[in-house]
Every structure is written in structure tokens, then in C-alpha cells.
Amino acid sequence: MPIYKTITVSPTTSVYMWKVTEPEHELSRGIELTSHCQNRMDGMKSEAHRRAFLSIRHLMAKAGYEDSDLYYDDWGKPHLKDGNHISITHSHNFTGIIVSETDEVGIDIEMQRDKILRIAHKFTPIQEYRTLANTDAIIRKLTMVWGAKESLYKIYAQQGLSFLRHINVMDFAFDDRRTVAEILYKGKKSQYDVEFLEFEGFTCAYALKLMGS
User: Fold this and answer.
1) Is the pLDDT reported for residue 181 higher than 80?
2) pLDDT interval class at 213 (50, 70, 90)
3) Of 132, 133, 129, which is closest to residue 145 (Cα–Cα)?
4) 4'-phosphopantetheinyl transferase domain: which residues (predicted)?
């Protein structure tokens, strides 16, 4: 069962991605779930969701963790019992995690789809994208911005946080593959490094909270 991609972000932070192609019975081999997570998986009607769920446990194993090392807080944010930071994402047949010993982290994978054109006004000032060359470029850029904001939202994990009003992603060129973003919420400002990866019609964004912000 091959891992799709591993990215060493820094000496203390890594991204692991899986392309889910295996049948459920194959993915379940060697994976021991807690009773809570087994109940969660048993409640999933979609086999695709169960396969994604299991693939994430394989990614955790690559990072040196078992299912029992993971827990969720009241906001639904995942945590590791050893105090390291983790974020998890799933989109169609791709899953991913980011794990860091030192930084708060978030990750998001999104399929590049024209649907994003219809919802763009809900998360970003759409007029800022009119200079882009064509519709495909706009879809790519919007997907990157959405992924960046989703990654920050996963780090911050507070009710009431608005993608449009509270999260700002600094403009970037496609070739940059990275940007800086900030959250300004309830009078507090925090800043984040964001990096991007595009593959097979998907976009992955992952964010690290900047120290001291």
C-alpha cells in the first residue's frame, strides 16, 4: 500500500498524503481502532468514507502513531496525546495529515471544481480575481485561497470565525507556491505561513502558525 507523497516541511514538521485505491479489507489490515473510532467507522454508510478513514490511520502509522494516540476536543479538533500537533484532511480519493513537534498546523485538500465560482463571494472578495487569465486560473486560485483559509480555520478552531471577515490571505503568484495569512478575531491577530501543492486536479494547502503570533 503506497503512500502518495511525503513532504518534509521542516526538521520538526511533515506532511503525509495517501491516494486511496485499495479495497476496504486491504486497508483494514494491521489497523487497530479504539472502540470509539470503530463505532464511528461502523456508522459510516459510505465505503469511500470508511476507506478514507482507514487510510488516515495508515498515514498516522507512517508518522509513528496509532489510532489510540489521537483524540478530539469539544470543537472537533484532533490532538495527539504526546502533545505534538496534528491536522487531518480528506477529499474524494485523497487523504492527508500534517504532524509537527513544534508548530500549530492545519491542512486541507480540495478538488479543483467550478462550483467554487458560485460560493467564492462567501469567503473572499471575488473582484480581486478578475485580472486572472481565464476561468481555469480563477478556479485554481480560489481553490488555493479556500484551502489556505480552511487550514487556518482548523488551527484556530473557534466558533464564530468567518472565512470572509476574519481570515485574510495575502496575494500570491502561482509560482510562489506559498503565502502568508492572518486571522484578526476578537481583537487578536495571529499570522501563519501557508504552502500549496497541486496534483491530479486537486490542491493541498498546509499552514503553520508563526511563533509569537
Assistant:
1) yes
2) low
3) 129
4) 105-206
Q: Residue 132 has what DSSP assignment?
A: S
Query: For a pLDDT cut of 70, what percent of the chain falls above it?
Result: 99
pTM beyond 0.85: the answer is yes
pLDDT tens for each residue of 186-196: 999 999 999 99
| Distances, alpha carbon 48 to alpha carbons 6, 62, 120, in Å | 22, 21, 27
Select from 57, 95, 25, 49 the least CA-distant residue to 41: 49
| Ranges of H-type helices in the chain | 24-27, 35-42, 47-62, 115-119, 135-156, 163-166
What 8-state DSSP symbol labels residue 159?
A: T
What's the CATH number of domain 107-209, 3.90.470.20, 3.30.390.30, 2.120.10.30, 3.40.50.2000? 3.90.470.20
